[in-house]
Amino acid sequence: MLYKIRSTRGRFGISVLLSMSLLAACGSNQTDMSGSKANPTVAAKNPEAAVSAERVFTDELGHEVILPKPPVRVFAPYMEDALLSLGVKPVAQWSNGNQGHRYLQNELQDIPKLDFSGGLPSSEVLLSYNPDLIILHTANYADNGVYENYSKIAPTYVFSNAAGDVEKSLEILGELLGKTDEAKQALDNYRRKVEDAKAAIEKNAADKKVAIIRFANRGVSLMGGNYFCGYVINRHLGIDMTKLTENENSLNFSLEILPELDADYIFVINAYGQGTERMKEMTESSIWKSVPAVQRGHVYEVNDEYWLGSGLIAYEKVVEDVVRVLSP
């Protein structure tokens, strides 16, 4: 039996999934999400100076980034979650086609969308938004002359992989935007929520293992504990992942491997609704129905909007879902 975790006015309920027509697999091709912690140099030229003074930073690719004044018009595609955690709205938001981060659209509904499905926007398009700071969340975004072109428009800071360590990335973002107090408060709130969650699930999570199966248009994979929702469950909540992903960020998954799945709880993601057929094929098979977690009813459909999100807002929602499932 497959259960679905739903969000209603910020709360989460679990109801029996009656149809396999829902759930979606992530069509976007995620770059390296190894979760390895980078050690960026975020060094203000004069740490004692007021935030309004010129500040100089070194980004994670070694570029010098000079901020002559506090940024106001920020463009940070795929980091909208982090910006909102700091109380900042970007001049434009990342989207895949016309679909932005759906779980953030209440806050971003008036922010123009820029389609990244065919690549990054041109310099001419970006210039029309008149940013005074550009932040690229992954080194891949800076390739093919993009950094050189964007840095002519505004100071441009590049993360090696901002999704690898969301907490560290938020601290850096707070430094760049002069929002260090806001970053500290957001992190403190999140960490308290994690500690409360660990206490709530301690009894049911002890010695248990979790598997996260992502159904996508390009195939089916098991997510490891080094990025996105896996990072939250494994690194923050301290729950072990299936042994199949102990040394993997992501593992191609199939019916042939399914009998080896040793998870006590299975979370299923159908990112962007593109994995419905693959999910139906697997979950209607006799092999699937013989898996112990399936027989115990410990399979849950989760919301791809934030389970594949990168930021504290998404992470908090994942924590809430896990508590809903694992608390007594």
UniProtKB/TrEMBL annotation:
Principal location listed in the UniProt entry: other
Coiled coil spans: 173-207
Keyword set includes Repressor: no
Top-level division of the source organism's lineage: Bacteria
Compartment list: Cell envelope
This protein's record includes keyword Transport: yes
Annotated keywords: Coiled coil, Signal, Transport
Domain Fe/B12 periplasmic-binding: 71-328
A Pfam family: Peripla_BP_2
Signal peptide extent: 1-24
Family according to the record: Belongs to the bacterial solute-binding protein 8 family.
Protein name: ABC transporter substrate-binding protein
Species classification: Bacteria, Bacillati, Bacillota, Bacilli, Bacillales
